Amino acid sequence: MVEKNVKRQTNSNEAKVSSIGNHYTEEQLKKYNREKKELIFKRRRLAALFTVITVVFLASGFNIIRSYLHISDLKQEKVAAKQEDANLKQQLSSLKYDVKLLEDEDYLLKVARQKYFYTKEDELVYSLPQIKEKPQNHQLNQIDKSGKNE
C-alpha cells in the first residue's frame, strides 16, 4: 500500500526522485504551487502596472515636448509680430509726416515746381541734364586688379 502512495517525479538533469504521497507532502505541494501562482500573478500585475505607468509617462512626455515646440513657435510669431508692428509704426509716422507736409502750401508749390515744372507768371525754367560723376575709386580698383602701379 505504501507503494501506491509513492509518486515518482522525473527531472531531466537529475536522477529520479520519489516523494511520499502522504497528506502533509500533498499540502506542502499545493501550498508551493499556490505561492508560485501568486508570485506569477504578482509579477504579471507589476509588469502590467509598469507598462501602464510607462505609457502614461511617455504620453505626458510627448505632450510636454509638443507643448514646448508650440510655445517656441508662438514666441517666434510674437517676435515677427513685434517687428512688423515696429515697421508699421514707422511707416505710419512717415505717412503722418507726409500728410503734414502736404497740408503746407509752400511745400506743395515747391514739389509742383520741381517735379512738374510749374512756374510762376513771367518765370522761365531751364532744365539742365544731371551729370553723373564717375567715382575715382573705380579707376583705382582697376589699377589694383591689373597689378600695375602707374
TrEMBL record:
The keyword Transmembrane applies. The chain crosses the membrane at residues 46-65. Pfam families: DivIC. One of its GO terms (biological process) is cell division. Keywords: Coiled coil, Membrane, Transmembrane, Transmembrane helix. Residues 71-105 form a coiled coil. This is Septum formation initiator family protein. It comes from Vagococcus intermedius.
